[in-house]
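Protocol step 4 of 5: obtain the predicted structure for the target chain.
Materials: sequence only (see below). No template structures provided, no constraints applied. The aim of this step is simply to have a reference model before the mutagenesis design in step 5. Sequence pasted as it appears in the construct record:
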Amino acid sequence: MSTVTDEASPPPAGQAHDRHHGRRWLILAVIAPAQLMVVLDATIVNIALPSAQADLGFSNDSRQWIITAYSLAFGGLLLIGGRIADLVGRKLTLTIGLAGFAGASALAGAAGDFEILVTGRALQGVFGALLAPTALALLNTTFTNAKERATTFGIYGAVAGAGGGVGLLLGGLLTEHLDWRWCLYVNLLFAAVSLIGALVLLPRHRRDKAVKIDVPGTVVVTAGLFALVYGFAHAETDGWGSVGTWGFLAAGGVLIAVFARLQTRVAHPLLPLRILLDRDRGASSVAIFISAAGMFGVTLFLTYYLQQTLHYSPVKTGLAFLPMIAAVMVMSALSTTVLTPRLGPKPIVPVGMALSAAGLAWLTQLDAHSTYAAHILPPLLVFALGLGLIMAPSMSTATAGIDAADAGVGSASVNTMQQVGGSIGTALLSSLAASAATDYLAGRQPTPEAIGRSALESYSTAYWWSAAFFAAGMIICGLLFRRGKPAHDPDATPAVHM
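Step 4 output (C-alpha cells):
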C-alpha cells in the first residue's frame, strides 16, 4: 500500500520515495485521454449522423436515439459507477471502463443495422459511467498539493470544456476523409493509450470493506435520472404538450426527491448529502450543470448553422471551432493557476457566466450572409473565454476536500451534473428551436427562402435560451459561492490509500 501526500508538508516516514507520487504527472497523462474520449463522444457522432443514416437507412425520428442512448446510459448510471470505484478500487474500475468502452465502440462502429448501433452507443454510456467518475477521483486523490491541483484541474477543465469542440473537428475529419465508422473506431486508440498507462502506472487500490452499495438508493436514482433524461428526449419528438413527456418528467422529479430523502436515512448512502450541502461544492455543481446545458447552444446549433446555412464541409465546420478550443484551454489554465488561487471562485465563475451569456446573445445576430471572421469568431471567442472561467474552477472546487472514501461518488456527482445537464440542454433547446421554426412557417408558403429563415429563427431561439441559462447561472453562483478561497476542513483533504 502506498500513500500520496501533500507536498506542502513532509511525507510520513517510509514514504519519502513514494514511486506512485513521483509518477503523478504520468498518471495525469493517462487520465486526460480517457476523459477526452468520454467527453468528445457526446459530439463526435453528431457530424457523422447524416452519413450513418444514409448507410444504415434509419428514419429521421430514429436518428436522435444514436445520441440519446449514450446519454441515457451515461447519465443514469454515473452515481453507481462512482460508488463502484470506491468499492472495488479505482485502478480496476478504470481498466474495466476503458476495455468496455473500447469494446462498445468497436461494436457500434461495425454495426450493420440501426439496432446494433444503438446498442453499442448505450454500452458506451454504461462503461463511460464507470470511467468518467473514476478518472476524476484519481486526479482528486493523486494531486493534493494546492499549486499542483490548480495546474491539474486547469488541464482537466480544458479537456472537459474543449472536448465537445474536439469531437466536432475530429468527427469532421474522419467522416470526410475516411468513413463515419471511424468516429467510433478512433476510441480504440484513446482507450489503448490510457489502458496501457493505467496497468503500468496506477497503484493497486485495496478494497475498502467499509464501503457498501446502497441498493435502494441506486435503483431509485437510476430510475429517476433515466426518467428525466427520457422525458426531455421525448419532448423533442412528441412536444411539450405530450402526456408522456410530462409523465416521465414528473416521475423523474418524484424519484429524485425520494432519493434525496433516502440518503438521509440509510447507513451507507450512495451520495452522502454532505458532499453537495457545502456551499462552494453546491455552487460548483450548479455551474457545471448550467454550463453543460447552455453550451449546446454553440456546439450543436452553430454546427447546424455552419453546415446547413453557410454550407461548410464537415472539416471546415470542425476547423471553425478551433479558436474556441484554444480560448477555453488558455482561460482554463489561467483561471486555475492565477485567478482562482488569489480570488477564489466567487468572482471568477459568475464573470465567466456573464461572458458566455454575452457571447451567445451576440450570436443571435447571425444571418444567411454572415462571415466567419467578422460575425462568428468574435462572439465565439467571448463565449469560450467565459466557459474557460467556469469549467476548471468549478470542477476543482466541486471535488476539493472530499474524503478519500467518497472520492469516487463525489467525482461522479460532478460528471452526473455535466452529463445530465448536457442531455437536458440538448433536448430542451432542440424542442424550443423546432417550435420556433414551426411558428415562423405558420401561415407562410414553404419556399426555400422561408425555410432558410425559419432555420435562422430556430438557431436564434436556441442561442437566446442558452444565454438565459448562463445569466441565471451568474446570479445563482454569485449568491452561493463564498467570498475568498474555498475553505474546507483540512482533515478532510484526501490522502490517497492505494
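Step 4 remarks: The beta strands are 3-4, 496-497. The chain has 20 helices and two strands.
Proceed to step 5.
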